Amino acid sequence: MRYDLVIFDNDGVLVDSEPISNRLLAGYLTELGHPTSYEESLRDYMGGAMHRVHDLVLERTGQRLPEDFDDVFHGRVFAAFERELEPVPGAVGVLEKLAADGVAYCVASSGSHERIRVGHRKAGLDRWFDDGRIFSSQDVGRGKPAPDLFLHAAGRMGVAPERCAVVEDSPLGVQAAVAAGMDVYGFTAMTPAAKLAGATRLFADMGELADLLAG
């Protein structure tokens, strides 16, 4: 393996949550008088922390979202996760390969710690990630596209940035990984390859990733 640490984004990379959460986010924003399509939610918010939603709505409309926006949204998301959430096809195989080869890995997500854990439990990934392998934008001052979260994860795992590979499926995440000085593997299952053009490598099937990382 050419890397000492593999850092996974969570939503859309490990758990197949992006269709669920963006459908619900678009619907909730529309309910609140900020008409948003599913495609617009993916374009504007995929890969970002919740503060990005608040910031963009305020910037565009001059209006603040309700104080309980995050709680209501996450309640809807967690309920939908219980009904629908599955791991990304091929993700378990990659984790099995890394563990078998003794390669360190972790998750660094824009989502909250609660969201990460709820998703992992429902998707059956919780056995792969103890608390020491989970990092959230809650842990740093700035979320993606700032490099802070990836640098924080690498620092806590004791690995230099240049020895890290990041697996991302959003433009914001790719920007953050590049800014952190890390190689980044862009997963194009949901995101057009052109939007991840800054990635070191692009791939469309999670089953290919272990071989790419070893190459």
Low-confidence stretches: none
The coarse silhouette is: globular
State the helix count: 9
* Strand line-up in the sheet with most strands: 3-2-1-4-5-6
Counting helices, strands and paired strands, the structural category is alpha/beta
Q: What is the chain-wise order of helices and strands? A: EHHHHHEHEHEHEEH
Radius of gyration: 16 Å
Taken as a percent bin, the fraction of beta residues is 5-15%
Mean pLDDT: 96
Alpha-carbon distance between the two ends: 7 Å
Largest sheet, in brief, is:
6 strands, parallel
Oligomer: single chain
What is the percent of helical residues?
40-55%
Annotation, overall tally of beta strands: 6
Concise structural overview:
This protein is of the alpha/beta class. 45% of the residues lie in helices and 12% in strands.
